[in-house]
Design a protein that fits this description.
About 50% of the residues lie in helices and about 20% in strands. The protein starts with a helix and ends in a 21-residue tail after the last helix. It is α+β, with helices and mostly antiparallel strands. The longest helix has 24 residues. Helix 5 crosses helix 13 and helix 6 packs across helix 7. Strands 6, 7, 8, 9, 10, 11, 12, 13 and 14 form a nine-stranded mixed β-sheet that branches. The chain has a three-stranded antiparallel β-sheet with strand order 3-15-18. The chain folds into three domains: about 230 residues, GROEL, domain 1; about 70 residues, GROEL, domain 2 (2-Layer Sandwich), CATH 3.30.260.10; about 150 residues, GroEL. The chain binds adenosine-5'-diphosphate and magnesium ion. The site of adenosine-5'-diphosphate (ADP) has 24 residues, from helix 4, helix 13 and strand 16.
Length: about 525
C-alpha cells in the first residue's frame, strides 16, 4: 500500500477511533461499557480509559490513542476533546486531498494554524489566580455529566482543598505534585461519604487483633521484604529423615524470624508497614512487642508512606536504624463496617493527603475515581498558570473566529487554515449533538453572538441554552485547550506526512508511530 492508499487508510483508521469516543463528549455524553476477554466490565465516559482498554491494532489508530495518553499525562483531562479534534483535523484534511491539494501543503497550513491558535488562546484566556470558588467551578465542570455528578459540590470542595494544600510556590512559580494525594477506595456507604483525610489511609487492617489499635507518636518502619522464611515463590527443598531433624528445622526457622522481629524492635519502631507477607510466627513476636503491623502493602503506597512520614524503605533488616524510621502523630485502625482500615495521621510531611472514595459498587467507585482525577488535574493545571477559558464550546467558537480573521495567507495553505478552524468548531457541534440539540442552529447562533462580541457565549447544557458560560461558572483550565491543540495537530500532521507503511522487520520500540504489527 503506497501513496494515497496508505494515507487514506491511515486517516480512516484514525477517524474511526475518534468516532468511537465522540458520543461521550460533554455533560450529556453517553458512557461506554467495556468488556475484556475475561468478562471484566468497565463502565466509563473517560476518553483515555476507553481507548486504553480497546484492542487497537492499526498503527495510525494507535497514534490517536497516544494523543489521549499525552493529554492525560499533561493535564489529566480533556482526552476526548483532544482525540475528537485530531479525528476532525484528519477528516477535513481528506476534503482537501479530494480537491487535489497536496498533503505537505495541508500539513504546513495546519502547522501555521496551530501556532496561531496557541497565541490566540493565550490572549483570550482569563487570569483568575487562586480564587477557591473558581477552582471549585473548574472541578465541577470536569465532573458534570459523570457518575460523580450527584455529589459534585462536595467532591469539588475536596478537590480544591486537596490541590491547594499540596501546592508549592517559590520564585520559579507554582509546582504541584498530585502524587501527594493518595486515592483510596472503599465499597459500602454512599458516594457522598467520600472524604478528604490529612494523612495516609490504607485499605488494610493490622495483621493481628491483639496488636494495639492505635499508636501515638508513631515511629514507623517500612520494609519491602517479607517477615517469613519461605515465601510462596521460593521452593526450598530440605531433606529431613527423623522427627528430631524436623523439630530442629522448625526451631531454627522460628529463631530466624524471632531475630528479624528483634531487629525491628531494636530500631525503636512501634509501627511496621511491610510490602510482603508477615507469617504467623512473626505476627506472634510483633504482637508481643506491641508493634502495630500491616502486611502486603502496595509498593506505591509504601512510597507514599515514605514521602509522608520521612521513613526510608528498608530491604535489609541489618541496616534498619532509628534514623530510618518515619514519624506521625498517630497510627490507628478505624473500623468501617466489618473490616478495618489503617489511618496514618499528623504526618511529618503535612502535604500527605488521602481522598477516601466511598460508593455502592466497584464500577461506581472506579468511575468516580476517574472523575475526581479529572478534577484534580484541571485544578492543578489552573493553579499552575492561573488561566481559564469559558467552557461549553465558547472558547472554541471564539478561537475559530479569531483564527479565520487573523490569518490571511496567500495560496492554498489558507484553505487548510480554514479547515483547521472548522475542526475546532466540531467541539461545540458535538456537545450540542450529544445533548439532542440541533448542531447547525446552535453553531449559527453561537457564531452570531460572537460576532456581536459576546466572547463567552457558549452552551449551558444544564439548561440547554446559549449564554455566557464564563458567568455561569462553566469554566476550564486554559491548559486543556492548548495541550489538545498541540497534540491533536501534531499527530494529524504526522499522519499526513506518511505516504507509505513498510514492514520494518525488527520490532519497533513502543511509543513509536509505526506499530509492530507490520
Ligand atoms: P474530555 O474528555 O475532553 O474532558 P468531557 O466529556 O469531560 O470530555 O467533556 C468536556 C466538555 O464538556 C468541555 O468542552 C466542557 O466545556 C463541556 N462542558 C462541561 N460542563 C458543561 C456544561 N454544564 N454545559 C456545557 N458544556 C459543558
Ligand atoms: Mg473532561
Amino acid at each position: 500500500m503506497i501513496g494515497r492508499d496508505a494515507q487514506r487508510n491511515n486517516i480512516l483508521a484514525a477517524r474511526m477511533v475518534a468516532d468511537t469516543v465522540k458520543t461521550t463528549l460533554g455533560p450529556r455524553g453517553m458512557d461506554k461499557m467495556l468488556v475484556d476477554s475475561m468478562g471484566n466490565i468497565t463502565i466509563t465516559n473517560d476518553g483515555v480509559t476507553i481507548l486504553e482498554e480497546m484492542e487497537i491494532e492499526h498503527p495510525a489508530a494507535k497514534m490517536l490513542v497516544e494523543v489521549a495518553k499525552t493529554q492525560e499525562d499533561a493535564v489529566g483531562d480533556g482526552t476526548t476533546t483532544a482525540v475528537v479534534l485530531a479525528g476532525k483535523l484528519l477528516e477535513n484534511a481528506e476534503k482537501l486531498l479530494d480537491q487535489k491539494i497536496h498533503s505537505t501543503v495541508i500539513a504546513k497550513g495546519y502547522n501555521m494554524a496551530a501556532e496561531k491558535s496557541l497565541a490566540i488562546l493565550q490572549r483570550i484566556s482569563t487570569k483568575i489566580g487562586k480564587d477557591q470558588q473558581k477552582l471549585k467551578s473548574i472541578a465541577m465542570t470536569a465532573m458534570t455529566g459523570k457518575s460523580a455528578e450527584t455529589a459534585k459540590e462536595k467532591f469539588a470542595d475536596i478537590i480544591a482543598k486537596a490541590v491547594s494544600q499540596v501546592m508549592e510556590q517559590d520564585e520559579r512559580g507554582v509546582s504541584i505534585d498530585l502524587d501527594n494525594i493518595k486515592i483510596e477506595k472503599r465499597k459500602g456507604d454512599g458516594i457522598e461519604d467520600t472524604e478528604l483525610i490529612e494523612g495516609i489511609v490504607l485499605d488494610k487492617e493490622k495483621v493481628h487483633s491483639d496488636m494495639p489499635s492505635n499508636v501515638k507518636n508513631a515511629r514507623i518502619a517500612l520494609l519491602d521484604i517479607a517477615l517469613e522464611i519461605k515465601g510462596p515463590e521460593t521452593d526450598t527443598k530440605i531433606s529431613i529423615s527423623t522427627p528430631e531433624q524436623f523439630q530442629a528445622f522448625l526451631d531454627k526457622e522460628e529463631n530466624m524470624i524471632k531475630n528479624m522481629v528483634e531487629k525491628v524492635k531494636k530500631s525503636g519502631a512501634n509501627v511496621l508497614f511491610c510490602q510482603k507477607g508477615i507469617d504467623d510466627i512473626a505476627q506472634y513476636y510483633l504482637t508481643k512487642a506491641g508493634i502495630y503491623s500491616v502486611r502486603r502493602i502496595a509498593k506505591s503506597d509504601l512510597e507514599k508512606l515514605s514521602r509522608a512520614t520521612g521513613a526510608k524503605i528498608i530491604s535489609n533488616l541489618n541496616e534498619l536504624t532509628a534514623n530510618d524510621l518515619g514519624k506521625s502523630a498517630i497510627v490507628e485502625e478505624v473500623k468501617k463496617g466489618s473490616e478495618g482500615m489503617t489511618y496514618v495521621r499528623g504526618c511529618l510531611n503535612p502535604k500527605a493527603l488521602t481522598i477516601l472514595i466511598r460508593g455502592g459498587t466497584e464500577h461506581v467507585i472506579d468511575e468516580i475515581e476517574r472523575a475526581i482525577k479529572d478534577g484534580l488535574g484541571d485544578v492543578a493545571a489552573t493553579l499552575q498558570d492561573g488561566k481559564i477559558v469559558a467552557g461549553g464550546g465558547a472558547i472554541e467558537i471564539e478561537l475559530a473566529r479569531q483564527l479565520r480573521k487573523e490569518t490571511n495567507v496567500k495560496g492554498r495553505e489558507q484553505l487548510a487554515i480554514e479547515q483547521f478552524a472548522d475542526a475546532i468548531e466540531a467541539i461545540p457541534k458535538i456537545l450540542a449533538e450529544n445533548a439532542g440539540m440541533d448542531p447547525i442552529d446552535v453553531i449559527t447562533e453561537l457564531k452570531l453572538r460572537h460576532e456581536r462580541n459576546e466572547v463567552h457565549a457558549g452552551l449551558n447544557l444544564f439548561e440547554n441554552k446559549i449564554e455566557n458560560t464564563m458567568a455561569k461558572g462553566i469554566i476550564e483550565p486554559l491548559k486543556i485547550k492548548t495541550q489538545a491543540i498541540k497534540s491533536a495537530s501534531e499527530v494529524a500532521i504526522m499522519l499526513l506526512r506518511i505516504d507509505d507503511v513498510i514492514a520494518s522487520g525488527k520490532p519497533a520500540p513502543s511509543r513509536m508511530p509505526m506499530g509492530d504489527e507490520y
